Amino acid sequence: MLKTMTFTLMHFCIAFAVAYALTGSVAVGGLLAVVEPLCNSVGFFLHEKLWQRIERQTPATQQCARRVWHHHHHA
User: Fold this and answer.
1) pTM
2) HEC letters along 24-43
3) How many domains does the chain have?
4) What domain range is 30 assigned to?
5) How many CB atoms are located within 10 Å of the residue 64 CB?
6) CB neighbours of 20 closer than 8 A, spacing ≥ 6?
7) Per-residue pLDDT tens digits of the chain, which is 75 residues long
């Protein structure tokens, strides 16, 4: 649990630092430090749901998905 908390704190700090460096605004940095990790959490949840669906598919379907992924990233 401590590792999760420190990772979350680091994520907030990085989001704040990047937004502040780009805008010079503490308000924008603070807002982005809260909003960006929340959006990432939703994205991660949806990503996990997608992968659970893929993992439940038949081996033939999984193989097809791997070929498409491999072709897409190595084309």
Assistant:
1) 0.57
2) CCHHHHHHHHHHHHHHHHHH
3) 1
4) 2-74
5) 12
6) 26, 28, 29
7) 888 889 888 989 999 999 999 999 999 999 999 998 888 888 989 999 999 988 888 676 667 777 777 766 565
